[in-house]
Design a protein that fits this description.
The chain is globular and about 105 Å long. A hairpin with a 2-residue loop joins strand 17 and strand 18. The two termini are about 40 Å apart. The chain is built from eleven helices and 45 strands. The protein has a domain of about 250 residues. It holds the Pfam family Plug. This is TonB-linked outer membrane protein, SusC/RagA family. InterPro entries: Plug_dom, Plug_dom_sf, TonB-dep_OMP_SusC/RagA, TonB-dep_OMP_SusC/RagA_CS.
Length: about 950
């Protein structure tokens, strides 16, 4: 079935390349049109909160492979989400991943923020839409554009962990703090510090040049072919990206990530009243990597724990068992080393890279669209019809080579005054498997269909009427894995009918209605359909007579909308309206006299009235052009209430006995919780010429707040209730410093998180009950996981003669977070970072910046509290690029029409009080990217 779609798609697309047809050009300037749901609207008539980025123009001054390049720096209200909620991404109207499209393929992007703008897309678009529109051909002779880039990626910083001798010294201190005997003797610590024998006294540094390159590189190449005539327009984009890896040890020396893509489309005129469009894209990605979790283990494995390699020339030749291990080993590294390890580390990241094999991951994506557009003006003037169908197919599989290896735990001794391995303990099996095998294999398919009638007329010059009646649906199926088991019980589906009707008088007064009938199989029968309406009003004040003498206003338009959307996005699964019993994991015993047995227990109760979740929203906006078009302003105020969110809590809504226990309940899922999100977003840009300089400056941002309006909750203390607080409110303990001595502990409220000793953190007794427990957590601030209280972006373009400089950045203020990674929370036997130098001791108690060291999990100290809290305020310079465009007459008389060269960088700078922390990663490091490239037109 899937192959059939592919063959049909390829055949239709190939045939269309040779079709002689045409597509009528838009009467309006293309740049003045904004892509909206199932159509386009002139920029001047836009009444919804839709922000656009002309990606095709943007990539002339900044290089990027990301299709969403620049959104945070160019659009107010976008922070990776839209108004704090995750948006549906559509590519040419089809649900697709933004990562499947490169920036060079994109014409423009519409970020649809308000509910009225997305209602026609139905339930799954109820949190906003990002509509990516790809490039198309033009009515002009064939053009060929080629672009090439090469870059290097340099790590910003690495974690700083203590060397083995320091680790052992401080671990001994942790043992003493816990009343335990010291683990390491002074001789081992001394020999380790002196580097006497790194195989006997190891000092593993994951971030050394033995394992890592100073930088890794990337390169990409893109070609574009486009053109057309009065009958046919065509566009073709093909490109390749390649990068290697920072890790260079073992199999990782050969690691790479390669992507190849082809995208093409043809627009045709089949008849004077009938047009057709075909789009097709293929994306191949190949990745090669060694096995193991190098970056994950790098933050935890103790530097002294074992030596990754054991030299055979330091092994006693008189011990037959050792020589037998050497002779029979299938993994003798470089002919010199056996793999080191312990009984608790029978595999390790070094041995994995050297001996475990590799994984080749392969993904294949095919995307095909076809559409027909008919002018039905012969039946009714202004009437058109369009229908589209698409099928996307993605497959993933891995080709892997995996070997089982043994590691060896040495016994060292002094033999004739030299260190010698006198015994080896073997752990695990040592096997050789020469066969490559197919690993995990998955694929998914998305099919989309839409049909719509559009009507657009102007009556008596001033009365502009437009309407759309449409149907749209798509379905995504994640198919069987390697065990032939479906990964989806239900396909992800969306289906709806929609109606849009709009009217404006002389482009001055606007009214717009959008409505959709949606369907969801997640709800019980009788509750599966709903109607989502939205109304928008607009007024171009600048066309009123009383504004004629206001010279500094070139254009001023205000808009307002109200909508009530229904959605099932926040209904996590199917059949939640049905009660269930389970026999797995928990039983209830019953008795009838002497007879009895076990019976399955209830997991949830029935709710035949489970309903949609609604988004009720009011928005007011303003668009203005001021001071002879020097300034442009777009701003929106929004307030949206999400009602009917599901809960299954044991509260006052149902009797307490409905909850039988922690693993058994008769509580049904009900529509009860309510959220509110409100805020103000804005985008402001200015353009001015100063002699030969042309400067454009943009500033955008969002002030955002949220509130839990209603919650199904029960707490003992008023300050614990989530109702009335921000959705991203972060809770923790108020730290009052360190316990200085036992008397300090005895005089303080009893802390219930393990045994407390001097040097541990002291928490405030919020409810003054003499006990520190979960009831003493309070709101410490907003975490900003959806959107920070204030986010902003900046962009700057400076042009001088043939040079142009572009820079963009983004930032935020008002959110808090915790330094809670393993770099800060040094638990148990994990390695120590340099932060522990500020640890509490009797000698440093007055200046300590870190709790006492402990060999335990630190249950008392390692909790979210004001001690670990920091303000997540920053500004990042995301990208800057300098471009030089050669004068047009440089290549006059040659086949070259134009040439640009450029250089730039990504992720360049962070300005923050917490810069070091924000740029620190305990896994794979953050990197600055520096690149250079060219763009040539033929």
């Amino acid at each position: 079935m899937n192959r059939k779609f592919i063959y049909i798609g390829c055949t239709v697309f190939a045939m269309s390349l040779f079709h002689a047809g045409s597509i009528q050009a838009q009467e309006e300037n293309k740049d003045s049109l904004v892509n909206v749901a199932f159509g386009t609207v002139a920029q001047k008539d836009l009444t919804h909160a839709i922000s656009t980025v002309n990606t095709s123009e943007l990539t002339k001054k900044v290089n990027s492979s990301s299709s969403l390049v620049g959104l945070e720096s160019l659009i107010g209200g976008y922070t990776g989400s839209i108004w704090g909620q995750e948006a549906l991404i559509l590519v040419d109207g089809v649900p697709r991943s933004a990562s499947n499209v490169r920036a060079s393929e994109v014409e423009n992007i519409s970020v649809m923020k308000d509910a009225a703008a997305v209602v026609l897309y139905g339930s799954r678009a109820a949190k906003g839409v990002i509509l990516i529109t790809t490039k198309r051909g033009k009515n002009e002779p064939m053009h060929i554009d080629v672009r090439g880039n090469a870059g290097i990626n340099i790590p910003k910083s690495y974690p700083k962990y203590l060397d083995s001798d320091c680790y052992m010294t401080l671990y001994n201190e942790a043992c003493r703090n816990d009343g335990l005997s010291e683990k390491y003797n002074t001789s081992d610590i001394y020999n380790t510090a002196m580097g006497a024998n790194p195989y006997r006294y190891p000092n593993i540094d994951f971030y050394s040049s033995d394992y890592l390159r100073k930088a890794y590189y990337n390169a990409d190449m893109t070609g574009e072919v486009y053109g057309g005539n009065e009958r046919t327009h065509y566009y073709l984009n093909f490109g390749m990206d390649y990068s290697n890896d920072l890790l260079k040890y073992g199999e990782s020396k050969n690691a790479y990530n390669m992507r190849f893509n082809v995208r093409g489309n043809v627009d045709m005129t089949l008849a004077s009243w009938l047009k057709a469009t075909t789009n097709a894209a293929i994306v191949y990605t190949n990745q090669y990597a060694g096995r193991g979790n190098f970056w994950g283990v790098a933050s935890t494995l103790r530097p002294n724990w074992f030596a990754p390699l054991l030299p055979i020339d330091m092994m006693d030749t008189n011990v037959s068992q050792i020589q037998e291990y050497i002779a029979n080993s299938n993994h003798l590294i470089d002919g010199k080393y056996l793999l080191g390890g312990t009984s608790s580390d029978m595999t390790n990241p070094f041995a994995d890279l050297l001996a475990a094999g590799y994984v080749k991951e392969k993904a294949r994506m095919f995307m095909f669209d076809v559409s027909l557009a008919a002018d039905l003006g012969s039946l009714l003037k202004g009437l058109t019809f369009k229908t589209s169908y698409s099928v996307d197919y993605t497959s993933y599989y891995s080709e892997a080579f995996k070997e089982t290896y043994a590691v060896y735990e040495p016994t060292w001794a002094q033999v004739n005054g030299k260190d010698m391995i006198v015994a080896l303990k073997k752990h695990n099996e040592d096997k050789k498997d020469p066969n490559e095998y197919i690993g995990k294999s998955t694929y998914d398919q998305t099919m989309t269909f839409s049909a719509q009638f559009d009507y657009a007329r102007t009556f008596e010059k001033f009365h502009n009427v437009a309407a759309t009646f449409m149907g749209w649906g798509y379905q995504t199926q994640k198919s069987a894995d390697e065990n032939h088991e479906s990964s989806d019980y239900h396909r992800t589906s969306n289906v709806n009918l929609g109606l849009r009707a709009s009217y404006n008088y002389n482009h001055k007064y606007y009214i717009d209605f959008n409505g959709a009938v949606i369907h969801s199989a997640k709800l019980p029968e009788g509750k599966r359909n709903a109607f989502s309406p939205a109304v928008t009003l607009g007024w171009r004040i600048s066309k009123e007579k009383f504004m004629e003498n206001v010279d500094f206003i070139n254009d001023l338009k205000v808009t307002a909308s109200y909508a009530k959307l229904h959605q099932d996005l926040d209904i996590s699964n199917y059949y939640l309206y049905k009660g269930t019993f389970s026999k797995e994991g928990y039983y209830v015993q019953w008795h009838d006299g002497t007879a009895g047995g076990w019976t399955p227990v209830s997991k949830r109760g029935d709710n035949p009235n489970l309903d949609f979740i609604t988004r009720k929203e009011f928005r007011a906006g303003i668009d203005a052009t001021l001071f002879n078009r020097l300034l442009r302003l777009n701003a929106n105020y929004f307030k949206q209430d999400t009602k009917g969110l599901l809960t299954q809590g044991a509260s006052f809504i149902h009797p307490a006995y409905f909850a039988l226990g922690s693993n058994s309940s008769f509580m049904p899922w009900i529509n009860y919780n309510e959220d509110r999100r409100s805020g103000f977003d804005f985008s402001l840009s200015a353009n001015k010429k100063f002699g030969d300089f042309n400067v454009t400056l943009g500033f955008n941002g969002m002030v955002y707040s949220s509130e839990a309006l209603r919650r199904d909750e029960l707490y003992d203390e008023d300050y614990q209730f989530r109702k009335g607080r921000a959705l991203d409110a972060s809770y923790g303990y108020v730290c009052e410093g360190f316990f200085q001595d036992q008397t300090d502990i005895d005089n303080h409220a009893r802390q219930t998180f393990g045994t407390v000793k001097p040097g541990d953190l002291k928490y405030k007794d919020i409810n003054e009950d003499g006990v520190i427990d979960n009831k003493d957590q309070i709101e410490l601030g907003k975490n900003g996981w959806a959107a920070p209280p204030f986010s902003f972006g900046l962009n700057l373009t400076v042009k001088w003669k043939n040079f142009s400089l572009f820079a963009m950045g983004s930032g935020q203020t008002g959110a808090i977070d915790y330094k809670s990674s393993s770099y800060y929370w040094n638990r148990g036997t994990s390695k120590f970072s340099e932060i522990v130098w500020g640890r509490w001791t009797e000698e440093t108690k007055d200046v300590a910046t870190y709790p006492r060291l402990t060999t335990t999990n630190g249950d008392n100290n390692y909790r979210n509290s004001t001690f670990w809290m920091y303000k997540r305020n920053y500004f990042r310079l995301n990208q800057a690029q300098l471009t030089y465009d050669f004068p047009e007459n440089t290549f006059k008389g040659t086949f070259i029409r134009g040439l640009s060269v450029y250089c730039g960088g990504n992720n360049l700078l962070t300005i923050s009080k917490e810069r070091k922390h924000l740029e620190l990663s305990t896994g794979s490091p953050q990197c600055r990217n520096f690149y250079a490239g060219f763009k040539a037109a033929f």
